[in-house]
C-alpha cells in the first residue's frame, strides 16, 4: 500500500468508474480516490465518449455489466476491438460466476465481486491490473517498430528462436523483403509518402502472418523479415501478396524484391535461414524481370566459394598469388601501329582453385570494400614494372590502372598514388588512372572533385567503359578527363551492323569536342581495326594485337619496338 501511495504522489493516474447505480459508483470511488483521480459515467454510451476523449491519460476502466443504453459486455467488446483503446485495462463488476468467465474471454483484465470486498483487496486488484497493463505497453513499445507495428529485428529473432525450440519439428520458410530504391521514393514524393509505403507494407505483412501463424519484423530502414510455417504454395501466395500491394499503392508503383529460403531441411538455425534469404534477395538488386528468387544449392555453393575467396585474400596478397598481366595499347594514327602504353589486369593464381578470373572476385571485393586493398597492390606492382622496363629498355611504357568507387571516396588517394610514383622514380602521368563512366553518374560532384585533385597532382584520367553508363551531354562538358575508352560491346558488331559503327563514330565525335583521344578495347580483327582507324579512333587494344600478358612475355613486345 505504501508503494501505491508513493506512486500516487509521483505519477498522476486516472480511473473511470462506469455504473448506473449512484451509490455503488460513489462507494467504489471513495475506496480509490486517495490513490487515483476518479471519473464517473452512469451508462455505456457516456463512458465510451469519455474513454475516447481521455484515451491517452486513462489508466483503468471499472465497468458494471448491467446498464441501460450500452451494457458492459457491449462496451467491453468495443474497447477490445479498437487498436487505440485496447491498451486500457478493464475490470468488470459482477456478482455472477458465469459473467466472470465470459468477461475474461472478452478481454477483461480482472473482476471485482459485488457486494464489494475489503478496500485493500480492491486497491490491490486495481493496482495490479494497472501495473500489468503499463508493463505490457512498455514491452510492446520496445519490441515493436513504432512506424509499422511489426516486431523489431532483435525481438523478432529472439521470439523466433524461442518458438523454434518449442516446436522442433515445425518446418519454417524465411523471406527477406527490400524496397528497391527507397531513397528515390522519399526524394520524389516526400518522407510522409515514404512512411505511408512502409506502413502499408507493414499492414500487409501483419495480414500474412496473422493467417499463416508466422512472425514479421522491420529489420532495416526499408527491409522486412517474414518467418512463416513452410507451405508448398508459397510462390502463389507471394504472387497474390505482390498483386495486392501493387493495387494498394495506386498510381505510385513501388518496386520490391524478395529473397526466400524455402525450407528443405538443410538449414536449421533461424538466423542462417535469413542469411540465405538475404543472399537470394541481394541477387535481385539490379533485376527488374522478377521480384523474388529462391535460395538454392547453386547459390549456396557460390556463396561458400565467395566466402572462401574473401577469407583467402590477405594471404594471397602477402604471398603475391595475384599476378598483374599487361594488355598492350597501340596507336593507329600513323602508317603502322605503335606500342604506346598498357592496361594492368589482375589474375589470381589460387593454390587450390588454380587461376581465378577477375569476374569471380572483382565484384565480390567491390561489394565489401576489399577492392581497395587489391587496387593498391596492383598500383604498386604496375609502378614497379614501369620502372623495371625503363631500367631494362630505356623507355617508359605508361600503364593504366583501375580506380574503384571505394578509392574515389578515400581522402588520401592523391597522397597514396603520389607516394607510389615517387617511390619508383616516376612522374605521375606514367601511371594512368581508369575511372568507369558509371562511377561519374553515381556521385558526379564527388567524382569530379577527386578526379580534379588527381589531375592537379599530374595524373592522367581515362574514362573507362564510355557509352555503357548514363552521362548526359551537358555533364560530359564538366568531366575532367584525358581520354575516353569505348566499351567493348560497341566494337563487337561494327563490321556487321551499320548502326553500331555510326554510334562509335558519334562517340568519337564527342571525344573530339572534348579534345581528348579515344581508346577502343576488345578489338579482335583487322577489319575492326581498320574501321576504327577510318572513324578517327586514336588507340586500340584487344586480341587483334595481343591478349593480356605477364610482364616477362610483354618484354618481347617492347623489344620489337626498340630494336
What's a quick, concise take on this entry?
The protein is α/β, with parallel strands linked by helices and 563 residues long.
Keywords:
single chain; 563 residues; alpha/beta; Rossmann fold; Alpha-Beta Plaits; TIM Barrel; eight-stranded mixed barrel; six-stranded mixed β-sheet; 22 helices; 21 strands; 20% strand
Written account of the structure:
The chain is an alpha/beta fold and 563 residues long. The chain has three domains: 142 residues, Response regulator (Rossmann fold), CATH 3.40.50.2300; 145 residues, 2-Layer Sandwich (Alpha-Beta Plaits), CATH 3.30.70.270; 248 residues, EAL domain (TIM Barrel, Alpha-Beta Barrel), CATH 3.20.20.450. The chain contains 22 helices and 21 strands. The chain has an eight-stranded mixed barrel, surrounded by four helices. Helix 20 links the parallel strand 18 and strand 19. The longest helix is centred in the N-terminal third of the chain and has 25 residues. It is elongated, with a radius of gyration of 36 Å.
Amino acid at each position: 500500500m505504501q508503494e501505491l501511495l508513493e506512486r500516487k504522489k509521483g505519477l498522476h493516474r486516472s480511473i473511470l468508474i462506469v455504473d448506473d447505480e449512484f451509490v455503488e459508483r460513489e462507494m467504489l470511488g471513495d475506496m480509490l480516490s486517495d490513490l487515483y483521480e476518479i471519473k464517473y459515467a452512469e451508462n455505456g454510451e457516456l463512458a465510451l465518449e469519455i474513454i475516447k476523449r481521455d484515451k491517452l491519460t486513462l489508466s483503468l476502466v471499472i465497468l458494471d455489466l448491467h446498464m441501460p443504453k450500452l451494457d458492459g459486455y457491449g462496451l467491453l467488446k468495443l474497447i477490445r476491438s479498437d487498436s487505440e483503446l485496447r491498451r486500457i485495462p478493464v475490470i468488470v463488476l459482477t456478482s455472477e460466476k458465469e459473467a466472470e468467465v465470459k468477461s475474461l474471454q472478452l478481454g477483461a483484465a480482472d473482476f471485482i465481486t459485488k457486494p464489494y470486498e475489503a478496500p485493500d483487496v480492491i486497491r490491490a486488484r486495481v493496482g495490479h491490473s494497472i501495473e500489468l497493463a503499463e508493463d505490457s505497453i512498455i514491452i510492446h513499445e520496445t519490441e515493436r517498430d513504432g512506424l509499422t507495428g511489426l516486431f523489431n529485428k532483435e525481438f523478432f529473432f529472439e521470439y523466433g528462436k524461442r518458438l523454434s525450440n518449442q516446436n522442433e519439428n515445425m518446418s519454417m520458410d524465411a523471406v527477406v523483403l527490400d524496397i528497391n530504391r527507397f531513397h528515390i521514393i522519399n526524394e520524389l514524393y516526400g518522407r510522409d509518402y515514404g512512411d505511408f509505403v512502409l506502413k502499408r507494407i507493414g499492414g500487409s505483412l501483419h495480414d500474412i502472418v496473422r493467417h499463416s501463424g508466422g512472425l514479421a519484423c522491420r529489420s532495416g530502414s526499408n527491409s522486412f523479415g517474414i518467418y512463416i510455417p513452410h507451405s508448398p504454395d508459397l510462390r502463389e501466395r507471394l504472387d497474390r501478396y505482390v498483386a495486392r500491394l501493387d493495387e494498394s499503392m495506386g498510381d505510385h508503383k513501388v518496386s520490391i524484391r524478395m529473397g526466400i529460403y524455402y525450407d528443405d531441411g538443410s538449414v536449421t538455425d533461424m538466423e542462417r535461414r535469413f542469411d540465405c534469404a538475404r543472399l537470394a534477395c541481394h541477387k535481385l538488386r539490379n533485376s527488374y524481370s522478377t521480384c523474388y528468387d529462391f535460395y538454392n544449392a547453386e547459390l549456396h555453393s557460390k556463396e561458400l566459394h565467395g566466402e572462401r575467396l574473401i577469407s583467402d585474400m590477405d594471404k594471397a596478397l602477402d604471398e603475391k598469388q595475384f599476378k598483374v598481366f599487361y594488355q598492350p595499347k597501340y596507336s593507329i594514327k600513323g602508317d603502322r601501329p605503335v606500342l604506346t602504353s598498357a592496361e594492368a589486369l589482375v589474375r589470381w593464381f589460387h593454390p587450390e582453385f588454380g587461376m581465378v578470373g577477375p569476374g569471380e572476385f572483382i565484384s565480390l571485393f567491390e561489394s565489401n570494400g576489399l577492392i581497395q586493398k587489391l587496387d593498391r597492390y596492383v598500383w604498386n606492382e604496375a609502378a614497379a614494372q614501369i620502372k623495371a622496363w625503363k631500367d631494362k629498355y630505356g623507355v617508359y611504357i605508361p600503364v593504366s590502372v583501375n580506380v574503384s568507387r571505394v578509392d574515389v571516396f578515400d581522402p588520401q588517394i592523391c597522397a597514396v598514388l603520389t607516394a607510389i610514383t615517387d617511390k619508383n622514380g616516376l612522374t605521375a602521368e606514367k601511371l594512368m588512372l581508369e575511372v568507369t563512366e558509371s562511377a561519374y553518374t553515381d556521385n558526379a560532384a564527388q567524382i569530379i572533385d577527386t578526379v580534379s585533385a588527381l589531375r592537379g597532382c599530374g595524373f592522367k584520367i581515362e574514362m573507362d567503359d564510355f557509352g555503357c553508363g548514363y552521362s548526359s551531354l551537358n555533364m560530359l562538358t564538366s568531366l575532367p578527363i584525358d581520354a575516353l575508352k569505348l566499351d567493348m560491346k560497341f566494337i563487337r558488331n561494327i563490321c556487321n551492323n551499320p548502326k553500331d559503327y555510326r554510334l562509335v563514330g558519334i562517340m568519337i565525335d564527342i571525344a573530339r569536342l572534348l579534345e581528348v583521344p579515344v581508346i577502343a578495347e576488345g578489338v579482335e580483327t583487322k577489319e575492326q581495326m581498320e574501321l576504327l582507324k577510318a572513324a578517327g579512333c586514336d588507340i586500340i587494344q584487344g586480341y587483334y594485337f595481343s591478349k593480356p600478358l605477364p610482364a616477362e612475355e610483354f618484354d618481347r613486345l617492347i623489344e620489337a619496338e626498340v630494336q
